[in-house]
Amino acid sequence: MTRLEVRDVTVRFGGVTAVNEATIAADAGHVTALIGPNGAGKTTLFNVITGLQKPTAGRVFLDGHDITHTPTHRRARHGIARTFQRLEAFGSLTVEENIRVAADAIRSKNAKPAQVTRELIRRIGLERYAGVRADAVPTGVARLVELARALAIDPALLLLDEPSSGLSQAETAAFGELLRDLAAQGRAVLIVEHDMPLIMRVSDRIHVLDRGVLIASGTPGEVQADPAVRKAYLGEDEPPSDPNPTMAMPAVVEMDEETFVATYAGTHAAPPTRVAEPAAETETETESEPEPESEAESEAVPESEEPPPSPDGAGPRSGGWF
Amino acid sequence: MNIFLTYTVLGFVIGASYAIAASGLVLTYATTRIFNVAHGATAMFMAFVYWELAYNQGLSDWLSVLLVVFVIAPLFGALLERWVIRRVADAGVGVTLVVTCAVLVGLIGAAEKIWPPGVHSVTMFFAGHGVRIGKVHVSGNDLLTIGLAVAAGAVLFAFLTFTRTGVAMRAAVDDKELLALHGGRPHLMAALAWAMGSALAALAGILLVSARPSDLNYISLTLLVVNSYAAAMAGRLTSLPRTFIGALVLGLLNAYASGYLWTGTAWTGFREAIPAIFLLLMLLLMPQAPLRVGRLSGVAGVRTPEPRRIAIASAALVLAVVIGNAVLSTVNVNRMALGLCFAILALSLVPLTGFSGYVSLAQFSFFGVGALTVAKTHSSAPTALLLGALLAAVAGILVALPSLRLQGLYLALSTIAFAQIMDSMVFQNPSLGGFGGSLRTKRLDLFGYRFTSDKAYALLAAAVFCVIGILVIGLRKGRYGRILIALRDSPAACATLGLNPRLARVAVFAGSAAIAGLGGGLYAGLQNQVGSTNFQFFNSLPLLLIVVCAGVTSVSGALLGGMLLMALNSYPSTQAYLFLILAIAAVGLGKQPNGIMGWLFDLRDHPVAGRLGFGSAGLARSIAASAAGAGTGSGTRSVGKSPVAVGDNAEAEA
Ligand SMILES: Nc1ncnc2c1ncn2[C@@H]1O[C@H](COP(=O)(O)OP(=O)(O)OP(=O)(O)O)[C@@H](O)[C@H]1O
Ligand SMILES: [Mg+2]
Q: Would you give the distance in Å from CA A212 to the centre of its chain?
């Protein structure tokens, strides 16, 4: 079932056309990815979907209803939630309060915001940070806070803008599972990511934007084989030797993972994947880490030093409230 | 026709001086993005310096003008930028407004010290000379004003458009690093802009006093230049040509209003409100700014105290008042009660400014609504107090509703406009006492007990303060308080969670106004009489300054702020010290947004000082520890390391 439909949306900033007649859709129960090089217009499209940016032209539909002119907060009540690429956690509130604000926002629907908050903290693995101010946690954790906050309003459509940057490899793997779980609950998940292996693994469908124009849509396999996509990402005209569009998806992922990652690292400012780091090492650091207070003291903790948020290192756990 | 021409010329003259003042404001804002609330006060102060040189020291008029406009004022502006503005340049709108507010209050204080109230009259330039246009006589002074405005506008425009320095100055605001990279010197540009801005303020001030010699007065001149805010807003604080057009339109409106609106009393108020209404209109016509996205920065926040500490602190305050009642003289007991009424007023800023980050300069208007309600109802029933709070809440909603789209500075300016309109159209209304008049009030009668003695009244005010303080802390701890802070941190994220930012803003304005109104009602009862001058817009400036410096994020900061405001009013001899403390605290706001209380809380958390019991709550904590039997230890709370301390209301009196 099509939950979200963005139809022929154009956004112009003065002379710059950030999005040019783009049409994308996201289905309930599926993970849909939106990819494209820097400046392709992905974040702008998210802003249009959430109502933070008025489109110059085009319409947005949620479950078949035209919401193009609905204010942002009403769209949220209709089930749209998002995270932000440039963090928008509530810096003066603790991690727990951040989530609680959202849980309270739909108090009429669920009677126990305190319980919802607790469950989410446990599920996303934020126990260690619950009492820490959100402007004092590392970037990767702040992204998880935004994710938990978005989940607290129990969204039918979840928009994630580069949620995995700042996560370690182990965390990213767990994060991928979480995405699949969320979709399995019937939510529509629309994700913007530069981490191609992750995208190829978790998405059911991928839209590719390039300079505001939708250049391809399809399954991961189709998209990877698409010449236009290859051109946008690799700057070459013909597909590399022996692409096999009929190949089963996991195989495709295996085959093309490196190409995509390498390409990405070449053309984009921030590499999506962290330098590989033994999970065990991270674990040790978790143990030796003192109190969260001291952590907050050092202002910028490099992400790679960040312990996995969940105490058992397994990352987000499924089940629980959801 | 003649009358029309006369008023048109008058309009041009008024407009010309507004234009000069407003262009200075625009210049500093466009270059440094700091809105100088003290612009009018600079004009006033420099006009006094001119008077000193020309009439006291006996220099020639022209030499004095040249000295003030080209030497003293620019020097003042540049030094102000260097020592004060630069330190807070990157802090938020709230801090920069408060700091320039501090400059304003300081300049007025200094002027009153240096030139004690008396007759400071100035004669017109070219007195006795003039030209005739048709049958209308235009004085030489008027011609000079218009001529200088045109010249100043032309020179400024050419400077900013055609010279390297001027272009660099405009670039400074957009990207300091980029400018520095290209060999520009952003700091120099900022200092230059402030120097020129203050020179223009000085010129406007001198022209204004020479046109109307009765105007060499601390406050009226400072406020006259408030009119130039309106003109500057017509140019959206950045465009000089539009500012000049705005100034001209405003000048003409003023002139025609005084010529053609019949002089009934109601219309007098309306006429005086024209600049404020104009300002409000300009603000409402601003295009909507999109919600800013992309910032993860908390504001130094408040850590709320536990219930037990609140109880102890409340008991300590009541105890302190009891002791004060026993040892203080009658007049000082009255002042203590006054300080507590002001503390309630200060408390109204805690949810509004401390939690939500909205800067309001209309708090004394809400205070006045509460006070006048008590006065007009001639009632001693508590319902009069409550009615006052209710009406103040309505006023709060009236402020919030039209300005829903406005953020930061523009919202603050809209509260200034509202307060000015309230001043001239409501408080000075003859049925409410009129200008300089007053109304008698009755004291509260609660369940048959009448609070006739000041001692009883001080206890009443302390009790009310505690109750509201507890409510404010409860607010902060609860759902609604979290929403307010979330809205301040990221309105965009709040909207995506389904929170309606407008509703929350209207509600917090209403609640804050209600607290101020309640304080005003208590104040009215305490004073036995109230008059319009008690609630002038102008009073809200030192209020904001003092409360923010004392600590607008905590209840104890509000108590300290109320007491300081009372001291400023009641003990003129201490003013100099108070100003010094406030000036230091104001400049320190860039580092410690929680003000003086923030420094004290930090001191308490300091390993050594804290153990010695320094810091405001050190005493309360040791009491708490012994009272509870078990020491609460130094680590009672385990909130992560926030850069800030605590907002609790533990205080050892104030
Ligand atoms: N508020 C704005 N004003 C002007 N231009 C904008 C604005 N927001 C985005 N743009 C421009 O629109 C284009 C698309 O930006 P957008 O942030 O949507 O890209 P993106 O695909 O999210 O890129 P990235 O991968 O870097 O996050 C860019 O060229 C950007 O400069
Ligand atoms: Mg983006």
A: 19
